[in-house]
Amino acid sequence: MSLLDIVDLDAGYGDLQVLSGVDIHVDDGEYVTIVGPNGAGKSTVMKTIVGIATCLGGSIEYQGTDISGLSPEEVVRERIGYVPQTNNVFPTLTVEENLRLGAYVLDEMPEDRKRDVYDRFPALADRTDEDAGSLSGGQQQMLAMGCALMLDPDVLLLDEPSAGLAPDLVDDMFDRVDEINDAGTTILMVEQNAKEALRRCDRGYVLANGRNRYEDDGDALLGDEEVRREFLGG
Ligand SMILES: Nc1ncnc2c1ncn2[C@@H]1O[C@H](COP(=O)(O)OP(=O)(O)OP(=O)(O)O)[C@@H](O)[C@H]1O
Ligand SMILES: [Mg+2]
């Protein structure tokens, strides 16, 4: 059984349908990426999983239970970690305050998790009392991941973690994602940096126009001539 099983999903915003019949499954411990052109609906997949976009048909099963009707807060309570594509930290709150908010649905502040996050991202540990808005782009992305990790999620949904990062920080970001996956957290990641994402992941999906186009092991997609020509710039 898959940890996350999206079947024949139609979804969008109000009456506007963006996704048509999307199928994506993620097994326990896997690292899966979704790539595709701008406007393909990649972020909409993530937003539908977490209850921000509207599910218009099909199902989203998480650990065997349909979560497609849940509110964002209820999804967070299922300990599904989500790092949005943009505006993923509170800039006028400190690093520490952001991490605390990441755990707001929990009954108790998980102090040990917080220490784990600071161990994983030492740059944050040096800046606990600084406003998140004063951090570099890379540090803000680490903080956004840290907030999601405060839930000790079984699965982490990452929407374009490398977007906007200086080129020398992109590799570091992908290394962090590898580490989180190696430590046992299942990853579903959307990436603009498609080649690197496919190189790093176990399996990948190519979405276009709100529909599935290709699905295979990351290496197989990278080696597929049609995929390369259509979606990876040759
Ligand atoms: N809040 C919204 N309300 C209405 N339409 C939206 C909303 N967000 C996205 N859309 C539309 O849904 C379609 C898919 O957008 P989505 O953000 O999922 O694409 P994407 O694959 O993530 O693109 P990108 O690579 O640019 O991030 C686009 O046509 C977009 O204009
Ligand atoms: Mg997007």
UniProtKB/TrEMBL annotation:
PROSITE patterns: ABC_TRANSPORTER_1, ABC_TRANSPORTER_2. Signal peptide: none annotated. Keywords: Amino-acid transport, ATP-binding, Nucleotide-binding, Transport. InterPro entries: AAA+_ATPase, ABC_transporter-like_ATP-bd, ABC_transporter-like_CS, BCAA_Transport_ATP-bd_LivF, P-loop_NTPase. One of its GO terms (molecular function) is branched-chain amino acid transmembrane transporter activity. Gene3D superfamilies: P-loop containing nucleotide triphosphate hydrolases. Residues 1-234 form the ABC transporter domain. GO terms for biological process: L-amino acid transport. Pfam families: ABC_tran. Belongs to the ABC transporter superfamily. This is ABC transporter.
